[in-house]
């Protein structure tokens, strides 16, 4: 497959950094640097429902450009907040967070747009799903007839301020898996992502009593069929089955697509000793430790949303504990609560996030982090983007996933130089498995690194005036080819 890249220095605008000249281009670190883009309640994008398509696109591009500016390398984009879709779907209606009306499309496909624009900037794009939430308190529009709360009210029932699908109903599992696989098969996403919402966080009624989860129908059916497990174990088993099936079925569809889960940061109080807080195993019926132990993820991003000095939820202690549970040696990329940096007296200082990154870097078994969320970085709240610009001073490659790789590493690219007028042109021929192209040029005694997509579109590469040009390519699992010069 032939890819054409045109060297026009003035139009350079993608994943770029410079370093002093040496015998060769500087090696790049392998570190996952991700950011969540939350669409539920219009947290990050779009800024409000009903914006014109071009305004929505401009806002999304601003997020992607900020990610590039800060030398991030992945965006985790929420595509299914509440049994709806931020993409063209035959399975679920359009999300109201786009137009203000559930079921009404925005006139373009946001996921397709996000994938193309992220890849053009050298960023991975992971599709983020909520497997069971059917309606969020921020929802304002009436659900259309094809929404699951209308189409199958037996599957999605009111729970406090939400509607929630019943994880123990086999039709719920089949439907949510179908939604995930539909996206995997139709879109060129780099990952599938699930957050901490499995069973809902418990809600209380007006009298202050915990509201029981509405699954009596499937529980009674299970018991009538001779089921012997306790109710809590039965619920956990349903979630475990979903997680295992999702991992295996995504791999059957596209083996290179990474599966990631970002659970609540504490598995159970007392693990490790001294840790306290919510018991996700007992309250959310999420046995996240099991999923990591079994390798039903390619990356694991526990939400370590506490300060380093907060002993009962100690960031370094929890990170070390999760690392100790990583029997299959999957990627461990903790979630950081960067949004707590607000520039106010109640907020965190930006240094807290920097220190958490540095603690993570001391562990060879934790090779990156994910920031919640994008708006904090775009706004530079509390100067946090300025600080990240320092701690992420140079670009980094996403860590490779060798357990996903098949066949040989990508082939060394072929380079053909041409002169057209006063412009230097570089044609780069790559194989079909190439995901990203990395071009390193030497000019003015400095190396400049550019990472961009391997799509067949004209892409700005700093070739004109360069003393040396070194090109390598990366495949979808992160393997790098031999460099060509």
UniProtKB/TrEMBL annotation:
Residues 31-341 form the Glycosyl hydrolase-like domain. Residues 1-21 form the signal peptide. Coiled coil: none annotated. It comes from the Bacteria. Keywords: Hydrolase, Signal. PANTHER family: GLYCOSYL HYDROLASE DIGH. This is Putative glycoside hydrolase. GO terms for molecular function: hydrolase activity. It comes from Fimbriiglobus ruber.
